[in-house]
Each structure stands twice: as structure tokens, then as C-alpha cells.
Amino acid sequence: GRIRLPLSGAPRDDAELDRLITHELVHAVVATLAGRNAPVWLNEGLATAVEPEESAEADEVLLRERAHPSLSRLHDTFLRLDAEDAEVAYALSARAVRRMTALAGTSAIVALLGDLGRGVPFDRAFRERLSIRYGAFQASLARN
Fold first, then answer.
1. What pTM did the predictor assign?
2. Contact, 1 vs 32, CB < 8 A?
3. In angstroms, how far is the first alpha carbon of the chain from the final one?
4. Eight-class DSSP state of 8
5. Along the 144 residues of the chain, how does pLDDT read in single tens digits?
6. Which of 16, 32, 109, 115 might form a disulfide with 120, Cβ 3.0–4.6 angstroms?
7. 1 burial level (CB within 10 Å; 0-12, 13-18, 19+)
């Protein structure tokens, strides 16, 4: 993975620059482990979940917006989403990663990314590493 930062538009605030660099570093780690095989929601969820203050902000967004897409609809790019839908997609992705971490720990997520990098189909890798079917995980996420 590569980290690309637009230096001409870099934040002047040290905390915001730290957040941006950390976010992009997570993307580089995901790319190194999973290649291009990680769903966008997992990649963005991991990068967003490490941000300070993320949890409260994501919960506020998800409470405000009652309609949430399924994770299956967020496997591909977020670029086609409007600003409001993108905000929900990032918040839902971060919530999913927090739930995965609570279920199985960070090491299971790292192992999942490694499986994806070796070409294991996502549904199978998810079930094996998190001990829950992907569909059941999505349903539990939708209920809360």
C-alpha cells in the first residue's frame, strides 16, 4: 500500500493531520494484507474506527439517519454516494468493525485480511475468522 497525502491541502491543525495520516496508514496496511480483496466497508471501517471521537460521532449519524444500507451494498466504492449517504456508510462501516472487534478481536480481523489477500472468498473467510455467518452478522448489525 501507498500513502498519498496532498501536501498543498494538508491540514494546519496537528490533530487533524495526525487523524488523516493514521487513516491513510490503515488503508496502506489493509492493502498490504488483503490487496484489493477487502470490501470497501471493511477498509473504510477500519480506517475510521481508529479515529479519535469516532464512536460517538458514528452513533449520532446512525441514530439521526434511520435508513441504513446493508454491508453487502457497501462492498464496492463509496464514490457514487451523495454526502449524506456517504456519512451513513462510513458510520455503519466503523460500527461493523467495532462489532467485529468485540466478537473476535483485532487478531481475527488481521487474519481475515490475510485470508482475503490469499484469495479466500469473503463469506468463507468471515465465517471462519469471526465464527458467524456474514448474513447473520449483517442482521445483528441492522437490529442495533
1. 0.89
2. yes
3. 33
4. G
5. 567 766 666 667 778 778 888 888 999 999 999 999 999 999 999 999 887 766 677 778 888 877 788 999 999 999 999 999 999 999 999 999 999 999 999 999 999 999 999 999 999 999 999 999 999 999 999 887
6. 115
7. middle
